[in-house]
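I'll show a typical protein example:
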Amino acid sequence: MEIENQTIVSEFLLLGFSEEPEQQPILFGLFLIMYLVSVVGNLSIILAIGSDSYLHSPMYFFVANLSFADICFISTTVPKMLANIWTQSQRISYEGCLTQMHFFMTFGALDDFLLGVMAYDRYIAICQPLHYATVMKSGICVLLLAVCWILTSSAAFLHTFLMAGLTFCAENSIPHFFCDLTPLLSLSCSNTSTNQLMLYIVGSMVLTAPLILIVISYVCIISAILRIPSNSGRWKAFSTCGSHLTVVSLFYGAAIGVYLCPLSSRSAGKDRIAAVLYTVVTPMLNPFIYSLRNRDMKGALGKLLLSKKALSY
């Protein structure tokens, strides 16, 4: 009986947001629009930066990589959810679930680290402008990006490896719209103490290390801005950081609430809402927050659109 009750599941059921049939078309249309806006917006940013030599600078290098990470990040979760709604199926294979979880953690953590690196870039630009070209030269930028990839991929692989060693019994319904780490842990009939310990240790490092870098950078930035004599100069310097702080607050507020709070103190509904904020809403808003308010980026996007119109004629 014990062996029979611990039959390894071959698939999971993603319950999503609602099982009511009349709500499915609304959810499908809403998430499809947000997904398309996110992909088109971030892809436009990448193409604009790549096509305009004036934007080939460290700041825009990281903006382009953030846009790429956002496209991958949102593409790990939303397309599968849309496919399930369209086919009226909640199924995802065991292998597909672990794969989705792995890439979700990889690109989510990459977003996190890139936000930290971008804060460091702003710190050098505002606090040490004379050394900016030397400190943030192309080789250093590529090295920072490579370190981000290595750290995030390693953390995701560790969690995936530990998850693959767990046993899942008869219960296979995930009260979420994608395969996330914490809902999967709650379904396992194995001892998950090691997994939960690594979740708090690695999760704390992945979330807090970039956050500490961001806080230290902005303390120095604000201190430098306050020393600028003119109001216009202070506003110009701070305007380059306000958008970044907005996204950091939204991303970290939701992520910390999901991954660092004890499992017993959370509800599935709140987890889903928080997950939508940093998996769907943040990638969708990033092109607008980071780039469309920037005069140089607006000019590059305008040139890109004009060149496409010229080619169409």
Observations:
- Confidence is low (pLDDT under 50) at residues 1-7.
